[in-house]
Design goal:
Number of helices: 14
Organism: Eggerthella guodeyinii
CATH topology of the largest domain: Heat Shock Protein 90
CATH class of the largest domain: Alpha Beta
Helix content: 25-40%
Largest sheet: 6 strands, mixed
InterPro entries: RecG_C_sf, Schlafen_AlbA_2_dom, Schlafen_AlbA_2_dom_sf, WH-like_DNA-bd_sf, WH_DNA-bd_sf
Protein name: AAA family ATPase
Pfam families: HATPase_c_4, SLFN_AlbA_2
């Protein structure tokens, strides 16, 4: 009886050696395990006890092995795999050498990145990897760009993102998720996918203070979920505390003005989400005082940029895929325009927004337009806050664009359900902001 020998001793199965009488699909698991552990060799044509039984068609076995390396295993392990045949005392055997890979975890394509698809070697056994082992491999293989790294959470859902893309009329199928950077070339979720998923672990905290210190809280909130939901919710929250005041100009015409320019608020908030350093787990902070609003997040200037570059609109992206998603949704008009827009929005008052930049943090401070001295000849009178809130302004803007709206249009625009949309329109009707036309399904609302 012939046995596989190595330097005069009988070889045995172990962490780097596996014997198989013939090719079978189960060998793919062993190939995955070798790539995920310390590499190894599979001997085809050898029984479990080391007896050489030979192969009838070694050429076909080599073809199947290399096909598995390129098609059945992800990431592709072709470059880590070498199959060759040898004549062992008149009997042909095939040796499949698999090196430890550099893009772990490797997994069966049909099973995905989970214990049912990821295998490792435990002594002479091939066993499913634990979830913690899978996460450790993902972390080890990550690169230096956070939103391109593999997510440590591979159980993600995208209900919120799907709704937002659908509302924007933008396709959001598997191939689009890949082009947006939600998954990498191997089908593994990236941190971009994590950030826009319903399971996003990063949050933004907002607080409203009485006066100009942090001594007394008036309200506070923490925004969670997909970055898309966080951005919209934070924008709505700030809007509630961004009072609108009436001003009477020299021509006796009324001009409405808000504490903080809408464009400046939006750009400062976009900076919080797009340029934040997500490798630091601490939440971003929004603080609203009586005379200023602050937007602070971890992440100083991207290496290679200066404050002068920032002022003239030059931009390097810390999170290029995150910025790309906001740009695709047209929530960002153009790269590098945020700071100039914030500055320009204060052109008519003697108060400037402030940008405090440290090595690991960035803070934008917006002064109140109402409390700031004015540059033009507008005479500011004591004015009562306007009653229009964010939802009402959104509805009126929608009517301005379309001529009229139905309740369903309001539901979609504000991401609210049927009942709140109906109540909002009824209230606006009572306040003389809109007029109802038609009945039943044909009911529409126009500006009063």
């Amino acid at each position: 009886m012939m046995r596989i020998l190595s330097k005069g001793t009988t070889m045995r199965e172990g962490i780097n050696i596996e014997f198989k009488r013939e090719w079978s699909d189960g060998i793919k698991k062993t190939m995955v395990a070798f790539a995920n552990t310390d590499g190894g060799t599979i001997y085809l044509g050898v029984a479990d006890d080391g007896e050489v039984v030979g192969l009838d068609d070694p050429e076909q076995c080599m073809v199947r092995a290399m096909q598995a390396a390129g098609n059945a295993i992800r990431p592709d392990v072709t470059l880590c795999t070498h199959a060759h045949a040898e004549d062992f005392e008149g009997k042909m055997i095939v040796m499949i050498d698999v090196q430890r890979g550099t893009s772990r975890p490797y997994y069966l394509a049909e099973k995905g990145v989970r214990p049912a698809g990821v295998y490792v070697r435990q002594g002479a056994m091939t066993a499913p990897a634990s979830e913690s082992a899978i996460l450790a491999m993902i972390k080890e293989s990550s690169n230096d760009v956070f939103d391109e790294e593999r997510s440590t959470n591979q159980t993600l859902t995208f209900e919120e993102a799907g709704n937002v893309f659908a509302h924007a009329g933008i396709a959001f199928e598997e191939q689009h998720m890949r082009s947006l950077g939600f998954v990498d070339e191997h089908g593994i979720y990236t941190n971009t996918g994590l950030l826009f998923s319903d399971q996003c672990p990063f949050t933004v905290k907002a607080a409203v203070f009485q006066g100009d210190t942090k001594s007394v809280f008036k309200n506070r909130f923490e925004f969670e979920g997909s970055l898309l939901r966080q951005f919209r919710d934070a924008l709505h929250f700030i809007d509630r505390y961004n009072a609108t005041h009436s001003e009477i100009g020299s021509d006796m015409r009324r001009v409405d003005q808000r504490d903080y320019p809408d464009e400046a608020v939006r750009e400062a908030l976009l900076n919080v989400f797009v340029h934040r350093d997500y490798s630091m787990p601490a939440p971003a902070l929004i603080s609203i005082f009586d005379k200023r609003a602050e937007f602070a997040n971890f992440g100083g200037l991207v290496p290679g940029m200066s404050e002068d570059d920032l002022a003239v609109g030059l931009s390097l992206q810390r999170n290029p895929h995150v910025a790309g998603v906001f740009y695709r949704l047209k929530w960002i008009e153009a790269y590098g325009t945020g700071v100039p827009k914030i500055v320009d929005s204060y052109a008519d008052v003697d108060a400037d927004p402030r940008f405090d930049i440290a090595s690991n943090s960035f803070k934008v401070t917006l002064p109140s337009m109402i409390s700031a001295p004015i540059k033009n000849n507008v005479e500011r009178q004591k004015a009562a806050p306007c009653d229009l809130d964010y939802q009402q302004r959104t509805v009126l803007k929608l009517i301005e664009e379309r001529g009229s709206v139905q309740r369903s249009d309001v539901e979609v625009a504000l991401d609210i359900t049927r009942s709140p949309a109906g109540e909002l329109l009824a209230r606006m009707q009572e306040e003389g902001l809109v007029r109802r036309m038609g009945k039943g399904k044909g009911t529409r609302y126009v500006a009063e």
